[in-house]
Specification:
The relative contact order is 0.17. Strand 5, helix 8 and strand 6 (188-191) form a beta-alpha-beta unit. The protein has 396 residues and is of the alpha/beta class. It has 2 domains: 5-29 and 289-395, Aspartate Aminotransferase, domain 1 (Alpha-Beta Complex), CATH 3.90.1150; 35-287, Aspartate Aminotransferase, domain 2 (3-Layer(aba) Sandwich), CATH 3.40.640. Strands 2-8-7-6-5-3-4 form a 7-stranded mixed β-sheet, sandwiched between helices. It has a 4-stranded antiparallel β-sheet with strand order 11-12-15-14, with helices on one face. The chain has a two-stranded parallel sheet with strand order 1-13. The chain has 14 helices and 15 strands. Helix 4 (57-71) packs across helix 10, helix 7 packs parallel to helix 8 and helix 11 (290-308) packs parallel to helix 14 (381-395).
Length: 396
């Protein structure tokens, strides 16, 4: 269906106050997401935290099928966690690595993930193997295939790739990567932190074994929420890095039994109001339709790129055969942080992506700090025009 932009903006209170092009940081929450959290917090204050959680039991259980529908999974393959980094780390640290075991990743991999690789390499002797980008800037799938076929290297234990890196507007070819990983029997961990909510993501089509995601970005949910997808067929091959009485059952003085589903990656205590907000955000996105959202976001981003490209001294920094809602650029003679602050003073929200967040890619491309404008379906064409004129004025 076509996005009803007027309705979307009316249901987004923040649209009255700011021009928000920072959806890759945190999307503006719509009214249903806000109300779900406030209503539950009120109940906690009125009747108690445990009692309010019990009262919300059916809505919490409904989260699993909603998220499963969002990504083409099954409800028992979903775990609810605090954020995308926790989700990613739970998956990564559930795998066993030894000396010479290879971790294959992309040049545009996010800093938090790469730091985990480095620490694992220090502790176990595992080897980190960045796969170079192709001419378009996305991960070179042919090189990945060749690396997995190599007979003169240690065993490949994991392919871990960020779907939409934090900078560059790039969408890595997740389905092609998944096909290669499946052919070689190597687990595939997909960081979908910035793709969930703006793109159609189907784990069956992609073929990933793990997927990590956040609620706060393009899903427009609350901060401090996220989820992990774990393919059912890999569950018996992985060990969650920690267990509690929710993830496992103490069945004898010397024995415990893990849950049989992905919820073995959860723990007992969580932000109930936040998760109810996450559920509202997922259902809200499903109501609009991810296909419609993706088309709207892509069209707005391409219009923004085209109009920014007309500004003298501005250089677009986006990569890849497929682009998304992230638009990154530099302005000659102007520091990105100062530009962000000047725009914020005009009630325009953007963010800065620094080289340390994607160090390999930034070093290869000799990137300075980038200004990142990330659009969503509730943004409109008038905001594109206002933003471009604000940047043009700063360029002068």
């Amino acid at each position: 269906m076509t996005i009803d932009v007027a309705r979307a903006r009316a249901e987004t209170p923040g649209c009255e106050r700011v021009l928000h092009f920072n959806n890759a940081g945190a999307g503006l929450m719509p009214v249903p997401v806000l109300e779900a959290q406030i209503a539950h917090l009120r109940r906690e204050a009125e009747i108690g935290g445990y009692e309010a959680k019990d009262e919300a039991g059916e809505r919490l259980v409904a989260l699993y099928p909603s998220i499963a529908r969002l990504i083409g999974a099954e409800p028992d393959e979903i775990a609810l966690v605090e954020n995308a980094t926790v989700a990613w780390d739970l998956a990564f640290h559930s795998l066993a690595f030894g000396p010479g075991d290879r971790i294959l990743t992309a040049e545009a991999e996010y800093a938090s993930n790469y730091i985990a690789f480095l620490r694992m390499a220090e502790r176990t002797g595992a080897v980190i193997e960045p796969v170079p980008s192709d001419a378009s800037g996305q991960l070179d799938v042919a090189v990945l295939e060749a690396r997995l076929q190599a007979s003169d290297a240690g065993p490949a234990k994991l392919v871990a790739v960020t779907h939409v890196p934090t900078n560059g507007g790039l969408v890595n070819p997740a389905a092609a990567i998944g096909a290669v990983a499946r052919r070689h029997g190597v687990p595939f961990l997909l960081d979908a932190c910035q793709s969930i909510g703006q793109l159609e993501v189907d784990v069956s089509r992609i073929g990933c074994d793990f997927l990590s995601a956040t609620g706060r970005k393009y899903l427009r949910g609350p901060r401090g929420t996220g989820f992990l997808y774990v393919r059912r067929s890999i569950l018996d091959r992985v060990e969650p890095p920690f267990l509690d009485l929710h993830a496992a059952e103490w069945v004898a003085p010397d024995r415990y039994r893990m849950r049989p589903d992905a919820r073995r990656f959860e723990n007992w205590e969580f932000n109930v109001a936040g998760l109810l907000g996450l559920g509202a955000a997922v259902d809200y996105a499903l109501d609009w339709g991810l296909g419609s959202i993706a088309l709207r976001v892509a069209a707005l981003a391409e219009e923004l790129r085209a109009r920014l490209g007309e500004i003298p001294g501005l250089t677009l920094r986006d990569l890849g055969q497929s682009h998304c809602g992230l638009v990154t650029f530099t302005l000659e003679g102007r520091e990105a942080g100062a530009l962000r602050d000047a725009l914020r003073a005009q009630a325009i929200n953007v963010s800065v992506s620094n080289p340390g967040s994607t160090l390999l890619d930034a070093t290869r491309r000799r990137l300075p700090d980038l200004l990142r404008a990330s659009v969503h379906y509730y943004n409109d064409e008038a905001e594109i025009g206002r933003f471009v004129e604000a940047v043009r004025a700063l360029a002068k």
